[in-house]
Amino acid sequence: MSVKRVAILGSTGSIGMNTLEVIRAHPERFKVVALTAAQKIERLAEQCAEFKPAIAVVADEAGAVRLRQMLQEKNLSTQVLFGAEALISAVVDSGCDTVMAAIVGAAGLAPTLAAARAGKRVLLANKEALVMSGDLFMQAMLAGGGELLPIDSEHNAIFQCLPNGFTNHPQGQHGVEELWLTASGGPFRDLALADLASITPEQACAHPNWVMGRKISVDSATMMNKGLEVIEAFWLFGLPLEKIKVLIHPQSVVHSMVRYRDGSVLAQMGQPDMRTPIAYGLAYPERINAGVAPLDLTQLAMLSFTEPDTKQFPCLALAFSAAAAGGTAPTILNAANEIAVAAFLDMGLPYLQISQVVEQVLNQIDSAPATSIEQILAVDTAARLAAQNYIRDLRH
Ligand code: NAD
Ligand code: MG
């Protein structure tokens, strides 16, 4: 068994920490060669002391100075770099063969794309990168000749339920009829629309089943997360959009399903614990202990499945229409949503205005065929600006 050399983009976040937990339990299988983080320098220093990567990357020079000092005190020889270019170095110059892409949002696109081009095994948690650049990202993966393994629990579940090789030769093959993405419905599933007006960031971040970063927690509450995941599934698995369905399943036990032509429906079940898909991606095609408690079906009262109400969750409807429009529409959707969620978390934008901001920006900016990464980044910037302007107008 050869040791896998792993770079983690976003090692101080929820996915990054869970990845290190799985790696910690299997030192004979994995060696961490690069760690990156934007803030939380102390936590990154502790991670460097434990895993001794060759490279550590932070966002800015001030952070790098602090981290260097902390590592010097610990007599560590990890090379400390900073900035966007350095994130790409962490992927291409660290000697890694596996990259955990777990930076949140569009900030993760460039290094994840670099991993794709460099032919790495890409463990994709950063769904926003794929939503923004779907076609071009998949082309980069193909050109690089690496392996793309989904870490998002729903896509990991579907990957596990598909026949071997499906992701390389989809489109009507192997008798696959539909993909069913399950969604918990988030903390506000049963609230009336009127009660949503006063939702606070703390309430939105308290997910009933999963512990996650703040941005994805808000996305789960609005169900924009599921919308992004529909687009993610479209690119990963290459089925037409109308074959990708969403089901509300509040228990989060069935992580997603594949319906086949012969009447079979295959589901992947487990605890709502990201260490399962992370361990699957890290060791694929082997199965290793993820440290996750066994699922006890006798302890479950029931499993229920219903169709989502798009009036309750307008973000889901917006994501479906951006997916259908194609081109740069998902880029616009994602950028406006990132700005709206940040404004909700940090600037008091009312919860119900998140979807309004996204809708407004989607109406304001025409989508076009996606032709290059430079164009996508320009559209991303324009959509962020439009969202910021609209939010400013709303506040006055
Ligand atoms: P998080 O907020 O907990 O962590 C984000 C990480 O990215 C941190 O290490 C942070 O330092 C880093 N980061 C943030 N902004 C950055 C920037 N501008 N430049 C460089 N680094 C930056 O988020 P998370 O919950 O771990 O989610 C990470 C990604 O995984 C997201 O795209 C999310 O949608 C996806 N995901 C998460 C979960 C989950 O259970 N947490 C499940 C499925 C998918
Ligand atoms: Mg998910």
3D architecture notes:
Helix 2 links the parallel strand 2 and strand 3. The chain is an alpha/beta fold and about 400 residues long. The chain has 15 helices and 11 strands. The strands form 2 sheets. A 7-stranded parallel beta sheet has the order 4-3-2-1-5-6-7, sandwiched between helices. Strands 9-8-10-11 form a 4-stranded mixed beta sheet, covered by helices on one side. Among the domains are: about 150 residues, NAD(P)-binding Rossmann-like Domain (Rossmann fold), CATH 3.40.50; about 120 residues, no CATH class. The site of magnesium ion has 4 residues, from helix 7.
Which fold name fills CATH's third level, the topology of the domain at 4-150?
Rossmann fold
Largest sheet: 7 strands, parallel
Mean pLDDT: 95
Q: Which structural class fits the helix and strand makeup? A: alpha/beta
> What sequence of helices (H) and strands (E) makes up the elements?
EHEHEHEHEHEHEHEHHHEEEHHHHH
* Strand arrangement across the biggest beta sheet: 4-3-2-1-5-6-7
Number of strands: 11
Shape summary:
globular
Which CATH C-level class of the domain at 4-150 is it? Alpha Beta
| Percentage of residues in DSSP E strands | 5-15%
CATH H-level name of the domain at 4-150... which superfamily? Answer: NAD(P)-binding Rossmann-like Domain
* Through-space gap between termini: 62 Å
Helix share bin: 40-55%
Count of helical regions: 15
What is the CATH-assigned architecture of the domain at 4-150?
Answer: 3-Layer(aba) Sandwich
Low-confidence stretches: none
Radius of gyration: 20 Å
